[in-house]
Each structure stands twice: as structure tokens, then as C-alpha cells.
Amino acid sequence: VQLQASGGGLVQAGGSLRLSCAASGRFVGNSNMGWFRQAPGKEREFVAAITYSAVTYYTDSVKGRFTISRDNAKNTMSLQMNSLKPEDTAVYYCAAGTTMPQSDKYNYWGQGTQVTVSS
To answer: Of 1, 25, 3, nearest to 76 (Cα)?
Structure first.
């Protein structure tokens, strides 16, 4: 499975971005999928996940601001990010696999897309 993340960019605080993750090589509709992020000098952290049955999970800091979704017909996953804050600045990675949704033990990872939020 190859995962391609896109949609990152530079946005002012309070703005919005929509990240997308396209899977190829295999249907991922029966896999859990997630978004992680890594800020400079920090460890990679869990952001959001969606199970194969569309149950969603979020880290506390993004609840109410971010929404994860998936389109199994298109083999894609998205992360709508609203009310962005400077502390959301990071490289965002998408992942897919059979692990627990909030675990970082996913089988497949995308290459990452940079999100920069200016104050």
C-alpha cells in the first residue's frame, strides 16, 4: 500500500486546511486509518483516527476543531482542520493498517505534508 498525503500549507491562526490521504496498491476500506504529526524537536504524536467502521478518535487538543473522514469508494481519508493554532504547526502523516486506531504501529505510512500556522 502506498499512501500519499497532500493539502498542507501556510495559514494564519484561525484559518482552515483540509488534508487528504490517497491510498493506492490495495483497498484500505477494511483498515483503520490515522493522522499523526511531528513538530520540530518533538516526538510524533497521534492526532486523529477512523476505524474501518467509521468510529473516530481525536487527541484532546484538536477535539471540536478537526474532523476526520474517509471515502472507501475512493480509497481516501481526509482531515478537515479548522480554527488552526500556531501549536498545530507540524509535519502531518497519514497511516493505515490493522493496529489499534490510536497506536503508532500502523503498517503503512505516507510521506508527510507540512502544515504551518502563523500567529
So the answer is: 3
Q: Is 67 in contact with 17 (CB distance < 8 Å)?
A: no
Within 10 angstroms of residue 19's Cβ, the number of other Cβ atoms is 24
The neighbouring-strand residues paired with 11 are 117
DSSP β-ladder status, 9-12 and 113-118: parallel
Pairing of the two strands 108-109 and 56-58: unpaired
Query: CA-CA distance, 15 to 108, in Å (whole number)?
Result: 30
Measured CA to CA in angstroms, residue 100 lies from 35, 62, 66, 107 at distances of 13, 19, 20, 11
DSSP string spanning 73-113?
A: TTTEEEEEE-S--GGG-EEEEEEEESS-TT-S--SEE---E
**pLDDT tens series, the chain, 119 aa:** 999 999 999 999 999 999 999 998 888 888 999 999 999 999 999 999 999 999 999 999 999 999 999 999 999 999 999 999 999 999 999 999 999 999 999 999 999 999 999 99
